[in-house]
């Protein structure tokens, strides 16, 4: 690693001007590795692309991977928000695990007794900084469901188990994600994590979503609280998801990434509980987006061949 870069990093820290300096890590030395690990451990650094990268085709929305990563130290305000959000997550997930413990154990036993296979589904999703992680859910589908059909799931999907229908209706299959939040791979509030194939479709502007920890709920989750209902009847659930849900979902996720705060998180959590009791309700902040159009509302009972031709 270039020693002048290290000196620049240290001097900028001493001057208190680190926020205006881009520090580039691209070597393989132990000192560089230590710096990168420190950045991720303290969570005080924000990905940034300088003019050289921008001229190479990357924009400020790009999230680079460790090994050739550029960081700018977070501003004092950003540090405070990140620390408060993480403390909020730890406290709330700890309380949630304690309170929901009996329900988690009961559901685990029911899943095990009613269908063959493991209790938990631990699928790979893309998290903060484009890093893959294992999301934890109660298994609501048959074993190897990902190999038997689309990544998106319609309400009529035959892969869903009997207890799975019940858990999905009341979002009970998401309870194990309290452990994801406690461990730090997820947050209570943040963009819902996607599978890799949908993340690979992000534009430069949309990559700002990857600067946030994925969450259990967010604006998009409130807007589209019943994905199975929206996709019900679709012969290709992934194609219907890309057309009916994904565009607005991305807009709402970018809205959260730009405007997030602890106060916003508290409102979203309150709105999420309100949405569970009032299915047709939308909070004022996202009411102008309207309700998601269902597949049946758009295409009715058209044959699948006609629908594909229209799409």
Structure overview:
The chain has 2 domains: 3-74, no CATH class; 79-310, no CATH class. The protein is built from 15 helices and 7 strands. The protein has helices at residues 3-15, 30-42, 51-55, 76-114, 145-148, 162-169, 177-183, 196-199, 219-223, 227-231, 237-244, 246-259, 262-277, 295-299, 304-310; strands at residues 23-25, 45-47, 69-73, 120-126, 132-138, 187-189, 215-217. It has a 3-stranded antiparallel β-sheet with strand order 1-3-2. A two-stranded antiparallel sheet has the order 4-5. A two-stranded parallel sheet has the order 6-7. Helix 4 packs antiparallel against helix 7 (177-183). It is globular and about 50 Å long. The N and C termini lie far apart (51 Å). Residues 1-45, 47-71 and 303-311 have low confidence and may be disordered.
* Series of H and E elements: HEHEHEHEEHHHEHEHHHHHHH
Q: State the oligomer.
A: single chain
Taken as a percent bin, the fraction of beta residues is: 5-15%
Q: Could you give the distance between the termini?
A: 51 Å
Q: Give me the side-by-side strand order of the main sheet.
A: 1-3-2
Over the alpha carbons, how many angstroms does the gyration radius reach? Answer: 21 Å
> Quick check: average pLDDT?
78
Uncertain runs with pLDDT below 50, 5 residues or more? 1-45, 47-71, 303-311
**Class by alpha and beta content:** mainly alpha
Proportion in helices: 40-55%
Strand tally: 7
Shape: globular
The structural domain count equals 2
Largest sheet: 3 strands, antiparallel
Q: What's the helix count?
A: 15
């Amino acid at each position: 690693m270039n020693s002048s870069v290290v000196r620049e990093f240290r001097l900028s820290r001493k001057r208190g001007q680190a926020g205006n300096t881009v520090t580039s890590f691209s070597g393989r030395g132990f000192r560089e590795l230590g710096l990168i690990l420190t950045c991720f451990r303290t969570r005080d650094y924000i990905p940034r692309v300088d003019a050289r990268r921008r001229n190479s085709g990357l924009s400020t929305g790009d999230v680079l991977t460790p090994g050739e990563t550029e960081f700018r130290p977070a501003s004092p305000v950003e540090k405070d928000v990140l620390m408060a959000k993480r403390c909020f997550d730890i406290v709330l997930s700890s309380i949630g695990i304690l309170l929901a413990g009996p329900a988690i154990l009961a559901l685990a036993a029911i899943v095990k007794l009613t269908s063959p296979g493991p209790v938990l589904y631990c699928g790979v999703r893309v998290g903060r900084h484009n890093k893959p992680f294992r999301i934890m859910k109660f298994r609501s589908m048959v074993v190897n469901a990902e190999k038997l059909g689309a990544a998106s799931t319609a309400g009529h999907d035959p892969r869903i188990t009997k207890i799975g229908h019940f858990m999905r209706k009341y979002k009970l299959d998401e309870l194990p994600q309290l452990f994801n939040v406690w461990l730090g791979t997820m947050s209570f509030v943040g963009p819902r994590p996607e599978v890799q194939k949908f993340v690979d479709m992000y534009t430069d502007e949309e990559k700002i979503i990857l600067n946030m920890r994925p969450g259990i709920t967010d604006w998009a989750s409130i807007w589209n609280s019943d994905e199975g209902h929206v996709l019900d009847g679709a012969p290709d659930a992934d194609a219907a998801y890309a057309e009916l849900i994904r565009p607005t979902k991305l807009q709402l996720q970018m809205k959260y990434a730009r405007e997030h705060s602890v106060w916003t998180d508290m409102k979203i959590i309150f709105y999420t509980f309100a949405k569970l009791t009032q299915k047709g309700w939308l909070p004022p902040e996202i009411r102008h987006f309207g309700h998601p159009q269902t597949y049946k509302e758009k295409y009715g009972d058209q044959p699948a061949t006609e629908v594909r031709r229209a799409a």
